[in-house]
Amino acid sequence: MSFVVYPALDIRDGQVVRLLQGDYAQQTTYGDDPLPRAQAFAAAGARWMHLVDLDAARAGGYTLAPLLAQIAASTSLKVQTGGGVRGRDDVARLLDAGASRVVIGSLAVRDPGRVLAWLQEFGPDRLTIALDARQGEDGVWRLPVHGWTETADATLDELALRYAQAGMEHLLCTDIARDGMLSGPNLDLYAHLSRRLPGVAVQASGGVRDVADVAAARAAGCAGAVLGKALLEGRLRLEEALAC
């Protein structure tokens, strides 16, 4: 299983932004140039990118189809994208718009029955299941939903295993406590998931600061790492990350 680096762009109101631990009130804006940034990813040698529609994640209704089409027309990048997926037609629409893989987050936690059916319909290589997790004082990883304000009944271990047994191939897992914090990825979490879910390509998300973190995620068993804030702030060069 080859390791994939996913340079990431989060888009809100047409702007490239980052939220601190998913909080819309704690936003840093990096510019209104998502297409040139995606083209720069491709020029640096990236094969994939991760694209998030934050407006849709909050209100539903994916808004980045025109940008997705521009990226597809002007680069060879494969795009993993999500935000606001509420139903089957949303998945089909994103794939038709040029997405190589659709990311399904909160719905994968709230209504796994529906999402499990989509794995069969669209194929497990076309979907990335995104489970954002927070570790409790008891050590159990739980799955906050609704803007991370409520907690689902199933734990991360339980739901991830259920998806894996149904054929899931791609799992994007974010440690909420590290999201946007530049504090390093949670290597214990990713090593645990990689052991528990053999054959599933686990993507590390949250906390990556530098090339050493990318290499450490790979060593922990991850099949990929999502690079956001560190890239946007110039702490990490994409070429260096791709080289490792």
TrEMBL record:
Check the record and name the NCBIfam families matching this protein.
1-(5-phosphoribosyl)-5-[(5-phosphoribosylamino)methylideneamino]imidazole-4-carboxamide isomerase (TIGR00007)
Q: Which SUPFAM superfamilies match?
A: Ribulose-phoshate binding barrel
Query: What's the chief localization of this chain?
Result: cytoplasm
Please give the name of this protein: 1-(5-phosphoribosyl)-5-[(5-phosphoribosylamino)methylideneamino] imidazole-4-carboxamide isomerase
**Which InterPro entries does the record cross-reference, listed alphabetically?**
Aldolase_TIM, His_biosynth, HisA/PriA, HisA_bact_arch, Isoase_HisA-like, RibuloseP-bd_barrel
Q: Does the keyword Ribonucleoprotein apply?
A: no
- EC assignment: the record states 5.3.1.16
Native organism: Stenotrophomonas nitritireducens
Q: What is the active site of this protein? A: D10 (proton acceptor), D132 (proton donor)
Keywords, comma-separated and alphabetical:
Amino-acid biosynthesis, Cytoplasm, Histidine biosynthesis, Isomerase
Q: Where is the signal peptide?
A: none
Question: Which positions, given as ranges, span the membrane?
Answer: none
Which is an annotated Pfam family here?
His_biosynth
UniProt similarity note: Belongs to the HisA/HisF family.
- What domain of life does the UniProt record list for this protein's source? Bacteria
Instruction: Give the EC class as a word.
Output: isomerase
